[in-house]
Amino acid sequence: MKVKALFISDVHLGSKGSKASALLEMLKQYEPEYLFIVGDFIDGWLLKKRHYWTQDFTNLIRKIFSYSKKGTQVIYITGNHDDFLRHYSPIALGTRIKIVNDYVWKGYYITHGDLYDGIVSMKWLGVLGSIGYEMAIGIDHFLKKLGHEKSLSKYLKNKVKNAIKFITDFENQLVYQAKERGCKGVIAGHIHTPADKIIKDIHYLNCGDWIENNSYIIYDNDKFELKQLN
User: What pLDDT is recorded for position 147?
Assistant: First the structure.
């Protein structure tokens, strides 16, 4: 299907959790005029610690180069996990692949978002994703039997509150950055939370990720649409 633009973020090639194969199958469905990679496509942080690379990762990169050869304009916005590319940004790889730190397109400010989160490292968010609140209560009962007084469920509940506040602060900061640039909207990634909403008269979009949500954004017929694979 031909579309004007397709947006993805947070693929994290190099991570065992990356759903590169699912992303590749999704890309095969579209023929975008523009492909925006909104940061953290490659997980340079993990690759520095240990080498993990699969054929799916290679196939995905080949698909993106194939896009560019067929006329798709690829705009790669750097993120914090692939910040090694910021040393070379902005740079053009041929005529159809550009690596930049941010971008403005059709009145939308496009940024990974890590430069505006105030924290960057959110390791505890992974805990929230892997341990549910109900499970934490069960663990609490077990820990109390062993004589532990601290409540894991209360700890996680407080972290959830902090997570909600963090996301709200992040979104508001990006809305502010969009307004500062005279833009009507902002498109980001980074927090792995897909979104499509209006905040203070600014259209806020977040691509989500390809670790848990398998989400992306398409732009066609003058409108954006947030999509998510089942």
Answer: 66
